[in-house]
Hints:
Elements: E1 3-5, H1 11-18, E2 25-27, H2 31-35, E3 41-43, H3 48-51, H4 55-61, E4 66-69, H5 76-81, E5 85-88
Parallel strand pairs: 1-2, 3-4, 4-5
Amino acid sequence: ACLRVYDPVAMDNFRQAVGGCDPNLVFCSSxxxxxxxxxxxxxxxxxxxxxxxxxxxxKSRMASPIIIDGRNxxxxxxxxxxxxDYYGVGRAALATTYKR
Length: 100
């Protein structure tokens, strides 16, 4: 798997911890860059920045519109309306049908 990672605060510490020599680990400068070509987004921190993304733009950059929300930061209905399959940890899934 190739991971495209972004965190508005912890990027430098993470880069130092794991190094930069793995071609399957890409450090991105924004959430939109991290979404480019992705098959799923994993929300693992609860930064306010992630709550206010343009979800239509995010979806247009993804290979498949799947969000796994490990913090239950996002509104499931908003994402379903935008055409995402949404999976919140500890919540019922709100899946839509999408075309690949």
